Amino acid sequence: MGLALLDFTFRIEKAFHIRIERRDAWDRLPRRKPIDWTAGELHDWVVQLCVDRDVPVLYSSWHRVQLVLVDVTGKSPMLIHPGTFVVRELGFSI
């Protein structure tokens, strides 16, 4: 697991007050070669984790995921929208 992925996971746990099991949580994301996800797919993944754990999904959930991606990548929030690829476009390391 790359440093950005680990940092993202820890920050999401804190922002959404959920626990993410490292070994199986990432299996729910789409598989692509090369590996890359959109910011929207990461948001959907976080929402599903909240639902699975009976944690309320707040209206601000997209904004929270976006801010975590800003913190992890150092990129402007103006560059991060649901269709942004986090590896290819933001330099996210996995």
Q: What key phrases describe this protein's structure?
A:
94 residues, mainly alpha, 4 helices, 48% helix, 0% strand, globular
What do you see in this structure?
With 94 residues, the protein is mainly alpha-helical. It has one domain (1-18, 33-94). 48% of the residues lie in helices and 0% in strands. It contains 4 helices and no strands. It has helices at residues 3-16, 22-25, 39-52, 61-73. Helix 1 packs antiparallel against helix 4 (61-73). The chain is globular. 19% of the residues are buried.
Number of helices: 4
Largest sheet: number of strands, sense, barrel closure? none
What number of structural domains do the residues give? 1
Helix residue percentage: 40-55%
Question: Between the first and last Cα atoms, what is the distance in angstroms?
Answer: 6 Å
Oligomer: single chain
Q: Could you say which overall geometry the principal axes of the C-alpha atoms support?
A: globular
Mean pLDDT: 88
Query: Stretches where pLDDT falls below 50 for ≥5 residues?
Result: none
Order of helices and strands: HHHH
Structural class call reads mainly alpha
Round the Cα radius of gyration to an integer and report it.
Answer: 12 Å
Q: What portion of residues belong to β-strands?
A: under 5%
Query: How many DSSP-defined strands?
Result: 0
Outline:
The chain has 94 residues and is an all-alpha fold. The protein contains four helices and no strands. It has helices at 3-16, 22-25, 39-52, 61-73.
